[in-house]
Amino acid sequence: MHVVVNAATSADGKLSSRRREQIAISGEADFERVDRLRAYSDAVVVGVGTVLADDPHLTVKDESLCDERLERGEPKQPARVVVDSKGRTPTDAAVLDDAATTYVCLSEAAPVGSRMDLVDHAELVTAGNDRVDLLRAFAALEEQGLERIMVEGGGELIFSLFEAGLVDELRLFVGPKVIGGRDAPTLADGEGFVEEFPLLHLEDLERLDDGALLRWTVED
Ligand SMILES: NC(=O)C1=CN([C@@H]2O[C@H](COP(=O)(O)OP(=O)(O)OC[C@H]3O[C@@H](n4cnc5c(N)ncnc54)[C@H](O)[C@@H]3O)[C@@H](O)[C@H]2O)C=CC1
Ligand SMILES: Nc1nc(O)c(N)c(N[C@@H]2O[C@H](COP(=O)(O)O)[C@@H](O)[C@H]2O)n1
């Protein structure tokens, strides 16, 4: 399995504002790059915080990229994955429509009622007691043949993936906006590291729109 975290932050490192509403940080060129990255992924993963805040669809938008997937013998759309300990994904969320297969990764703490609602819309994976055990959940996804994983956020999930040692690559678009706010989400929130910080190796740096695209690999 190869896990790429892709996100866009403001120049001051925020994923969104303190209101946690979706903010277009990427410009046209970066959104096209994100669409291509989705098209070369087996699954696109987000945390339920992102579903509740943004209601993303997580599909490949460019039809020619979908056609190329079909020519390669892949499903028209990559699978979508929501990491959702307590089963809070609304059944009318865009990510649960029939455009692609969706997996919802739950913990044992997800109420039976939520499971019964979600099972009509998604494949359910259970791993972990109170919180999704990401190592086990990603192993279960790999068993389903999902090898090329793209994670889009948000900050809580991205931190946990670094903590679990699951991230192979970080692709970050740093855009020409200052958002500010001590409570605004950043690329990696959670508890934060105080030692044994994950270290990155810069592979590429490119100007894109009025921002910069950085590609790092994670050192072992
Ligand atoms: N600029 C960008 O590229 C992106 C920005 N965003 C922004 O990020 C914000 C949402 O991010 P967050 O609130 O951090 O939510 P998140 O999307 O990271 O989801 C966090 C939730 O996932 C669930 N979860 C289950 N197991 C977990 C585990 N082991 N580790 C961590 N989480 C686990 C928990 O319910 C937790 O509250 C929104 O404001 C959204 O707009 C989201 C994606 C991309
Ligand atoms: N790459 C990127 N740049 C931005 O500026 C963003 N605001 C986001 N947000 C994430 O994009 C996804 C939206 O997906 P759909 O267009 O609905 O398919 C979702 O993950 C947002 O949080 N990303």
TrEMBL record:
Catalytic activity: 2,5-diamino-6-(1-D-ribitylamino)pyrimidin-4(3H)-one 5'-phosphate + NAD(+) = 2,5-diamino-6-(1-D-ribosylamino)pyrimidin-4(3H)-one 5'-phosphate + NADH + H(+); 2,5-diamino-6-(1-D-ribitylamino)pyrimidin-4(3H)-one 5'-phosphate + NADP(+) = 2,5-diamino-6-(1-D-ribosylamino)pyrimidin-4(3H)-one 5'-phosphate + NADPH + H(+)
InterPro entries: DHFR-like_dom_sf, Rib_reduct_arc, RibD_C, RibDG_C, Riboflavin_Biosynth_HTPR
GO annotation, biological process: riboflavin biosynthetic process
The EC number(s) this enzyme carries: 1.1.1.302
MF terms in GO: 5-amino-6-(5-phosphoribosylamino)uracil reductase activity; NADP binding
Pfam families: RibD_C
Residues in Bacterial bifunctional deaminase-reductase C-terminal domain copies: 2-212
Pathway where this protein functions: Cofactor biosynthesis; riboflavin biosynthesis
Subunit note: Homodimer.
UniProt record similarity statement: Belongs to the HTP reductase family.
Protein name: 2,5-diamino-6-(ribosylamino)-4(3H)-pyrimidinone 5'-phosphate reductase
